[in-house]
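quick one: zinc ion bound model?
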Amino acid sequence: MKKEKVIKCIGCGALVPDIVGPVHKYLGTSPGCWKLFGDILAKEYGDPEYMKVHRLTVDAYAVQHIGVEGPQTIQSINLHLLALCAALEHGVTYSFIPQIMNDRLNEYKGVFEWLDPPKSLGSITVVDATKAKTVEEHEKIIKEWARDTWNAWSKHHKKIEKYLEGIDYR
Ligand SMILES: [Zn+2]
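yep, here:
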């Protein structure tokens, strides 16, 4: 059997298939990693049970793939970290999080600052997430992935928490 050639993803550092293909507009990702992420999204969109943790999947992936410094990247990192903070630290229902992100975007557009990325963006990656064989495994690994990436950004937690001040979580 021919062994698939792998390369290190420019974003998360995971070993991903060395392929030619599309990437996201402003996330810093290699085509092979973007493809694996697409596979996971397809799994989630295809099954409501897998879809339950979709919020965390998107946020974990986004904060692990930092693009070139610019307004879109700055906005993206801040909003996805906000989302992780709301979900993991405040137990906000996932379906309520887009509303919080929208609301904060309206309030802080142009105010968000570049967050100097940590040296390590976490040890769990999209490659681990693709290994889940059951809904339970999927949910477990996505939650661990989200927690791991959120923890990786700990030096900016205070700043992110500030943007969430005044939100009624009930
Ligand atoms: Zn990656």
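The beta strands are 6-8, 15-17.
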